């Protein structure tokens, strides 16, 4: 077990049980002009698993997340989500169907409080019209109170009660990353996409984030697709790992299988462990 996870008290990936395929990406190719970002990539994600995507900088990892949640539309290939082909799925469709994400660069509303930032994750679940919300009257008021209770549960889960009224811009980096995770969790996603959730963190902050990711997977049953450069963390918490290099898939399997792959060693890991 890596040093980051030694103090978390979480079970290893081998202790988890995964289900049927929930997301299937088939022969995905994506180009920007003459630049090929992804070439003929296929892999699937099983329900309740932690699925890692790794590779060197520029390998196409974030592009793949953007394909999954509808930011980019691949020129070739097919996305099958819960058995339904969704080649042209956009970001709204993805969010409505239960896919949420965090970003490599923090994308929070810095002048708003922690509570209000996390509340924005509930927007798609609100049914009252804009006028009632603006007036904060009747059904809209009751609905917002119900959503606020759900958000308070997320705040308690992430152990950030003490900063719930603090503007996000005043918080240290590690706590801002936790708030961004909270906003995604507020949407109660089936699949959570995490783009380098531990980038720039110290060891203690990484330990906290690992614990929360594993608890989200275990307690909420959320399926997680994760991009992360800390190989100790990836190999410890992931059920399966897909490896990209220059927009192509070079390996796919369990952490042990990927770790021993000569192609992965040559392209990314550098040495066999």
From TrEMBL:
<dbReference type="InterPro" id="IPR032823">
    <property type="entry name" value="BCA_ABC_TP_C"/>
</dbReference>
<feature type="domain" description="ABC transporter">
    <location>
        <begin position="23"/>
        <end position="271"/>
    </location>
</feature>
<keyword id="KW-0547">Nucleotide-binding</keyword>
<keyword id="KW-0813">Transport</keyword>
<protein>
    <submittedName>
        <fullName>Amino acid/amide ABC transporter ATP-binding protein 1, HAAT family</fullName>
    </submittedName>
</protein>
<dbReference type="InterPro" id="IPR051120">
    <property type="entry name" value="ABC_AA/LPS_Transport"/>
</dbReference>
<dbReference type="InterPro" id="IPR003439">
    <property type="entry name" value="ABC_transporter-like_ATP-bd"/>
</dbReference>
<dbReference type="InterPro" id="IPR027417">
    <property type="entry name" value="P-loop_NTPase"/>
</dbReference>
<dbReference type="GO" id="GO:0005524">
    <property type="term" value="F:ATP binding"/>
</dbReference>
<keyword id="KW-0472">Membrane</keyword>
<dbReference type="Pfam" id="PF12399">
    <property type="entry name" value="BCA_ABC_TP_C"/>
</dbReference>
<keyword id="KW-0067">ATP-binding</keyword>
<keyword id="KW-1003">Cell membrane</keyword>
<dbReference type="Pfam" id="PF00005">
    <property type="entry name" value="ABC_tran"/>
</dbReference>
<dbReference type="InterPro" id="IPR003593">
    <property type="entry name" value="AAA+_ATPase"/>
</dbReference>
């Amino acid at each position: 077990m890596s040093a980051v996870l030694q103090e978390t008290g979480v079970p290893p990936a081998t202790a988890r049980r995964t289900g049927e395929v929930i997301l299937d990406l088939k022969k995905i190719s994506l180009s920007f002009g003459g630049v090929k970002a992804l070439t003929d990539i296929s892999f699937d994600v099983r329900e309740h698993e932690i699925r890692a995507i790794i590779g060197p900088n520029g390998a196409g990892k974030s592009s793949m997340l953007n394909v999954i949640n509808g930011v980019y539309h691949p020129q070739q290939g097919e996305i099958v989500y819960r058995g339904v082909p969704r080649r042209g799925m956009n970001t709204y469709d993805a969010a409505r169907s239960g896919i949420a994400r965090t970003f490599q660069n923090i994308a929070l509303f810095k002048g708003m409080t922690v509570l209000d930032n996390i509340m924005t994750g509930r927007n798609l679940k609100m049914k009252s019209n804009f006028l009632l919300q603006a007036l904060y009257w009747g059904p809209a008021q009751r609905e917002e109170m119900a959503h606020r209770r759900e958000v308070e549960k997320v705040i308690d889960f992430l152990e950030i009660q003490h900063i719930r009224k603090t503007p996000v811009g005043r918080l240290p980096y590690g706590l801002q990353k936790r708030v961004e995770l909270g906003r995604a969790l507020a949407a109660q996603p089936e699949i959570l996409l995490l783009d380098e959730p531990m980038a720039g963190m110290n060891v203690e902050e990484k330990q906290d984030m690992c614990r929360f990711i594993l608890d989200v997977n275990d307690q909420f049953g959320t399926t997680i697709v994760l991009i992360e450069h800390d190989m100790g963390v990836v190999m410890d918490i992931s059920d399966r790992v897909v490896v990209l290099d220059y927009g192509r898939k070079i390996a796919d399997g369990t952490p042990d299988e990927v770790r021993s792959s000569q192609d992965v060693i040559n392209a990314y890991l550098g040495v066999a462990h």
